Amino acid sequence: MRTKQIDKYNKAEKLRNLRLSYGLSQKDFGQKLGLTREAVASYEQGYNPVSTSVILKISQITGIGREYFESEMSLQEALKKYEITPLDMLQTGDFDDIGFFVYEDIMSYINNEPIKQKMTLKLRFLTLLFGLDIKTDYHFIKLTDSTNEPYAKKGDILIVLKNDKAVNGDFVITRFQQSYIIFQYFIAGLDEVLFKGSNDIEIRLKGKEREQIEILGAIKQKISISM
């Protein structure tokens, strides 16, 4: 009985140290875990044991392995082992769920016809795999033709932010003369933009001329399936 009591308070202290290292209040940390502030407080104060399910949830959202709670490992040792940096501590948005949609092709994207309705992923997952760190919905589009080579080949998957804004250098999905084309977008002057496409196509537009090309989404990453 004494051993269980010591173990319970040890996990409570580890939980509190971990929460404080992320700079989160009990309320905010509880929201990440799907718990109330009172529940987090009861764990930290040792009134209730930190269950295995809670430890698994904490591991999922922080990257801290179960070993931290189930051994004498210190928080500093855990951060080093699981390669969690001070920057990770500040990016608490990494905990959050983000939405994503999957499309069979560009036309399905244009027509807002995803294969399934909105699904969710952890932002941390997308950040680690694809370098995506904006908390917003992402759209995964599979290319079914070779229209946009050499930038993107048939079978490639584009990860797109669905808006009409682009950053200098972004590749964008556009509507131009009743066609849907991928261009690279550049700011060419005070009120001038340049769209560069395949086959050395370049289109410069100034002022209201810019309305000739409608931006339908900014491509933030490309997944190539070629071996």
Structure description:
This protein is of the alpha+beta class and 227 residues long. Helix content is 33%, strand content 26%. The chain has helices spanning 2-21, 26-33, 37-44, 52-62, 67-70, 75-81, 86-90, 106-110, 123-130, and strands at 97-103, 119-122, 138-142, 157-161, 171-176, 179-189, 192-196, 202-206, 213-223. The chain has a nine-stranded mixed sheet. Helix 2 (26-33) crosses helix 3. The longest helix is centred in the N-terminal third of the chain and has 20 residues, at 2-21. It is elongated and about 65 Å long. The termini are far apart.
Strand adjacency order, main sheet: 2-1-3-4-9-5-6-7-8
Question: Which class best fits the helix and strand makeup?
Answer: alpha+beta
Number of helices: 9
The overall strand count is 9
SS strand fraction? 25-35%
Uncertain residue segments:
1-6
Order of helices and strands: HHHHHHHEHEHEEEEEEE
What coarse outline follows from CA principal-axis ratios? elongated
Distance between the termini: 58 Å
Largest sheet: 9 strands, mixed
Q: Mean pLDDT, as a whole number? A: 84
* Fraction of residues in helix: 25-40%
Radius of gyration: 24 Å
For the structure shown, list the relevant keywords.
227 residues, alpha+beta, 9 helices, 9 strands
Compact overview of the structure:
With 227 residues, the protein is of the alpha+beta class.
Note the topology.
Blueprint: H1 2-21, H2 26-33, H3 37-44, H4 52-62, H5 67-70, H6 75-81, H7 86-90, E1 97-103, H8 106-110, E2 119-122, H9 123-130, E3 138-142, E4 157-161, E5 171-176, E6 179-189, E7 192-196, E8 202-206, E9 213-223
